[in-house]
Write a structure and sequence with these properties.
The protein is mainly β and 312 residues long. It has strands at residues 5-8, 13-17, 28-32, 37-41, 53-57, 60-65, 76-80, 85-89, 102-105, 110-114, 125-129, 134-138, 150-154, 159-164, 174-178, 183-189, 197-203, 208-212, 220-227, 234-240, 243-247, 258-261, 267-273, 280-286, 294-299, 304-305, 309-310. Strands 20, 23, 25, 26 and 27 form a five-stranded antiparallel β-sheet that branches. A four-stranded antiparallel β-sheet has the order 3-4-5-6, with no helix packed on it.
C-alpha cells in the first residue's frame, strides 16, 4: 500500500507529500471547490478500517474528524458544489457488510441524510453534474451475484433511479463530469473483479414529455407535462405538423441541435421554467387544428430533447 500524495498540473506529476493519512487503499476522495481542499474518508489499511476524515490544503494533510460514517472501504464520494457539501455513499466492511447510507460533510461535521435509495453496494462510482445540480451514481456490487448496471441521481434530498442498462455491468469504473459538453463520462471498471474493461461511455439525461388532449378532434383543454430537465432551467415546447429533421439555426439558443420535427408549421409554442426537480406542466385551450401534429420539449440549458410525442 502507498501513502504518498501527487499532483498533476497538466504536464507532469509532482510528489508533494509523503506524510498524512496512513497507507491505504479503497478510500474515497473528493475536491471541495468552495473551501479549496481535498477530502479523504475511510479505506483499508494494515490496522483495519480507520473511520477518519482527512483534508489536504496545498501540500499539508490534516485529520479533521474521527467520527461520522461507520468505517468502510470501496465507497464513493463526490462534491456537490450547488450545496457546498461532500457526499458519501455505500462501501463495505471487512466482513462483507455493504452499506446504502448517504452522508454529507460540510467541513465541520458529517450528517447522515438518507438510508434509502440504491441497494447496499460497494465499488460504485459517483460524479456531480454541475449543470443540472445532481450527483450521478453508476454500478457497483451488492449482495446478489454479479455486478450492477443501474444509474441513480441524488438531488440533495433523495435518490431517484433513472436508468437500468447502458454500459455493461461493472464495479469500480471512474466517472467525471464534462461541463463543456454537459455529459457524464464513464471509463473502465471490471464486470467480475477478474477481467477489465477499457470502454468509454457518456450519459445525458433525456427530457420526458406527455400530452393529455381528451378532445383532440374538436379542440379544448390540453395538459402538457415534462420531467428530467434542468432544475429551475428554461424549457421550450416545440410543435410541427410532422416528424422529420430540422436544425436550429445559428443565433438561436441550442443552435445546431437537430430536432425530430419536420419544417412544416414548425413553431415555438411555449417557454417555461422547470421546478426544483426539473419537472413542470402547462394547461391551455388548443384548437383542433393541432390534432395529429407532433411535439418535443427542449431543455434550453443542456440542449437535450425529449422523444417526439404525438398530439392526440
Amino acid at each position: 500500500m502507498y501513502g504518498d500524495t501527487w499532483v498533476w498540473d497538466g504536464v507532469e506529476w509532482t510528489q508533494i507529500a509523503n506524510e498524512g493519512p496512513q497507507r491505504r487503499y479503497g478510500h474515497a476522495m473528493a475536491y471541495d471547490s468552495v473551501r479549496d481542499v481535498s477530502v479523504v474518508f475511510g479505506g483499508l489499511w494494515l490496522g483495519g478500517l480507520p473511520p477518519e476524515t482527512w483534508e489536504l490544503s496545498g501540500s499539508t494533510w490534516t485529520r479533521v474528524a474521527q467520527t461520522g460514517p461507520p468505517a468502510r472501504w470501496d465507497h464513493t464520494m463526490a462534491f456537490d458544489s450547488a450545496r457546498g457539501v461532500t457526499v458519501l455513499f455505500g462501501g463495505w466492511t471487512n466482513n462483507g457488510l455493504r452499506f446504502n447510507d448517504t452522508w454529507t460533510w460540510d467541513g465541520s461535521v458529517w450528517t447522515q441524510v438518507a438510508s434509502e435509495g440504491p441497494s447496499p453496494r460497494a465499488e460504485p462510482k459517483m460524479t456531480f453534474d454541475s449543470t443540472r445540480g445532481v450527483i450521478v451514481l453508476y454500478g457497483g456490487i451488492d449482495d446478489q451475484p454479479g455486478s450492477l448496471d443501474d444509474t441513480w441521481e441524488w438531488d440533495g434530498t433523495r435518490w431517484t433511479q433513472v436508468a437500468v442498462g447502458g454500459p455493461p455491468r461493472r464495479i469500480s469504473p471512474d466517472m467525471a463530469y464534462d461541463s463543456r459538453r454537459q455529459a457524464v463520462i464513464l471509463f473502465g471498471g471490471s464486470p467480475d473483479g477478474r477481467t477489465f474493461l477499457g470502454d468509454t461511455w457518456e450519459y445525458r439525461r433525456q427530457p420526458r414529455m406527455s400530452i393529455d388532449f381528451p378532445n383532440c378532434s374538436i379542440g379544448g383543454l390540453v395538459t402538457i407535462e415534462w420531467s428530467c430537465t434542468t432544475p429551475h432551467g428554461v424549457i421550450a415546447l416545440l410543435f410541427a405538423r410532422t416528424t422529420g429533421e430540422t436544425t436550429i439555426p445559428d443565433g438561436r439558443p441550442c443552435a445546431g441541435t437537430r430536432l425530430g420535427l419536420g419544417p412544416q408549421n414548425l413553431q415555438l409554442v411555449h417557454t417555461a421554467r422547470s421546478d426544483s426537480r426539473g419537472s413542470g406542466s402547462v394547461r391551455a385551450i388548443v384548437s383542433h387544428a393541432a390534432c395529429g401534429g407532433r411535439a418535443q420539449v427542449l431543455d434550453v440549458t443542456t440542449c437535450a430533447l425529449s422523444e417526439v410525442v404525438p398530439v392526440e
